[in-house]
Design goal:
Keywords: Membrane, Transmembrane, Transmembrane helix. This protein has about 100 residues and is mainly α. The chain has 3 helices and no strands.
Length: about 100
């Protein structure tokens, strides 16, 4: 992909970025797992871990995609805010049912 002088280039959406998202997701899921094994406050089942993995990995991939495809910093920040807000709303609904 060629870019003209003076215009920001679109960064590639690479497999390495997706793998980094998956590694971070796995690392974050080790926190509730370790707490469960050590008798902590988490009481998650398999579905909870799968749902959290899908939410976190999906959010990370969406953020990477927005970072790679959007040119201006303002549009990347706005897209990032919308993506994170969507994550928080879905997480809160699954956790306590705020819309019921």
């Amino acid at each position: 992909m060629k870019s003209t002088p003076g215009s920001p280039s679109v960064k590639p959406f690479s497999t390495r970025n997706v793998l980094r998202v998956l590694y971070v997701t796995g690392a974050l899921l080790l926190i509730p797992l370790a707490s469960m094994l050590l008798g902590g406050a988490f009481n998650w089942g398999v579905f909870d871990f799968v749902a959290a993995a899908v939410l976190l990995a999906g959010t990370g991939v969406a953020l990477e995609f927005a970072r790679a495809r959007l040119r201006s910093r303002t549009s990347r920040m706005a897209a990032g805010a919308v993506i994170v807000l969507a994550l928080l709303i879905v997480w809160a609904e699954l956790a306590v049912g705020i819309f019921h």
